[in-house]
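May I ask for whichever protein you like with its backbone structure tokens?
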Amino acid sequence: MSVNRLGLGTAPLGNLFTAIPDDDALATVWAAWEQGVRFFDTAPQYGHGLAETRLGEVLVGLPRDEFVLASKVGRLLRHPDGARPSTIFRDVPEVDPVFDFSRDGVLRSLEESLQRLRTDRLDVVHVHDPDDHEAEAMTSAFPTLIELREQGVIRQVGCGMNQAAMLGRFVERVDLDCVLLAGRYSLLDRSGGALLELCRARDVEVILGGVFNSGLLARPEVDATFDYATASAALVARARSMQSVCASFGVTLPEAAVQFALRHPAVSTVLVGARSVQEVVDDVSYATSTVPADLWSALEAVVRQE
């Protein structure tokens, strides 16, 4: 396995669940660079612009042609009119994400992301979470991004979602270069498997996020989270069973989680989130350690028992 297939996911740098100091966030990005990570994924939603701003502070000092920068469109950050909606991000700026998949919204979103990231271009642009806006994504957002790709403004057009079904429809109907699938292809959730095979057949790159399912596969504790909510007792029990199997092979559960994602031939990049230098070092170790081949069949036996 190679660290070159790892990407840094920046939702934690946007104070996901817990606020972190600016210095820790910047040190995390620097650590990723020093460890050889060259793919950085962000979005306006992450920390309501905070993740992009923090990421940009580091990347502005690095050789632009030596890394891949991905962000997303579909949400504009605007000052609230009234009561602010709840958010899983802490200590965010005084702006809130507002869905907008129109052509104007896409262009404004890109311009504002470039300002926060302190760069003149994005390599990959995903339409972000169009779950309730499928038609507008098809008729406005994707055509706008494809036009920008044809003009050479961006390199790749993608779509990032937490579900596989709609992504599959987009792969079939839109000239996509890549998709970002979060949480739906992991040791605990294989529901995205058919999408990965479709992407492989159509030569669409797959970027996998959420390979720890937001925490459970990193630390299978009683209070662990699965898809950003408290994990059920059944899921915790399954994760612990997998943890025991991994231990019998001298492997940690997070090592298995990352390398399971990397094993699929459709997967080009696996995103790992981090909020500290140590987490970056750990993530790189998970991706590059040696895992016995027999581990995978032993883990599949756990899945079949469910």
